[in-house]
Amino acid sequence: MFKLKLLAFRYSQKLKQFNYWLLAQTIFVIFAVLRLLPANAAIRFCAWFARKIGPLTPRHKVAVDNLRHAYPEKSEDDIQAIAREMWDSMARLFAEYIFLDAIFDFDPNATEKGLVEVDGIQIFERLRDEKKPHIFFTAHTGNFELLPICAATYGLDVTALFRPPNNPYIAKRVLKARRTNMGHLVPSKAGAAWSLASILSDGGNVGVLVDQKFHRGVESTFFDRPVKTNPLLAKLARQYDCDVYPARCIRLPGGRYRLELKERMELPRDTQGQVDIAATAQLLNDTVEEWVREYPGQWMWFHKRWG
């Protein structure tokens, strides 16, 4: 009986790996075909396709359920419209991985506007010259992948915490692409916190996505619903007494982007004057919620943030 169970387990693992491989090869073929097209055409096609196919997938049900809880006052037509816009935005992000170099055309010395505009240039320039560590945080909204590229444009070396896809074949390819375009990355796994801590202790900069599910996180709320929030940012800020800056990407009409870097965030403190972990986690959620409410169709609603 034990041998049969062991054989069944090994077979299921091999089948799982084969499914991962098959899905990865399919995606790589799609990438190869998209590369044959001009960037704008490829991105527009992916957005059109996702608007048609996305609502037919199981993840659409997750997105719609999340939207109904977040916006109980909205009509079903409004909810569906936001969900379709989300599929459009996520598909664009998928295609934009291939064309990051073509998309990011921002030149601080240019006299004409390109695809990318930046709000917070003076902050970037000031932080570049500061001899101290900084933490930047953002969320899965717009094309957040453009933010570390923008930082590098101003000479800011930012190491980003990166959660690899579950598919190991896709994860390897994506990690290689992101290292090429975005500099240093730390995969989100055991030991990641120590890696980021080491960077901050050496006076470096780190970037963190703060809207992900974290089973062992701090009790907090997001859109008035209970969630678990990763306390890593708050703990690092408290340990190294470093400034924390919010940054985001907003999709603009005409396939353009606005990257925003705002001034230092005042973190809540406890009675001993140290960064309050729980209150900071809630502040991060409140900030992201404000972003999402402003542009709801640009956030990843199919993510099981509340699950």
From TrEMBL:
Which GO terms of the cellular component aspect does the record hold?
A: plasma membrane
Its main localization is membrane
One biological process term from GO is: glycolipid biosynthetic process
Which is one Pfam family of this protein?
Lip_A_acyltrans
MF (Gene Ontology): Kdo2-lipid IVA acyltransferase activity
- InterPro entries in the record, alphabetically? LipA_acyltrans
Where found in the cell? Cell inner membrane
The regions listed as transmembrane in this protein's record are 20-37
Name the EC number(s).
2.3.1.241
Q: Give the UniProt keywords, A-Z.
A: Acyltransferase, Cell inner membrane, Cell membrane, Membrane, Transferase, Transmembrane, Transmembrane helix
Superkingdom of this entry's organism?
Bacteria
Which CDD domains does the protein's record reference? Answer: LPLAT_LABLAT-like (cd07984)
Question: Is Transferase one of the keywords?
Answer: yes
State the PANTHER family in the record. Answer: LIPID A BIOSYNTHESIS LAUROYL ACYLTRANSFERASE, LIPID A BIOSYNTHESIS LAUROYLTRANSFERASE
What is the protein name given in its UniProt record?
KDO2-lipid IV(A) lauroyltransferase
Provide the species name. Answer: Paenochrobactrum gallinarii
Provide the organism lineage as a comma list.
Bacteria, Pseudomonadati, Pseudomonadota, Alphaproteobacteria, Hyphomicrobiales
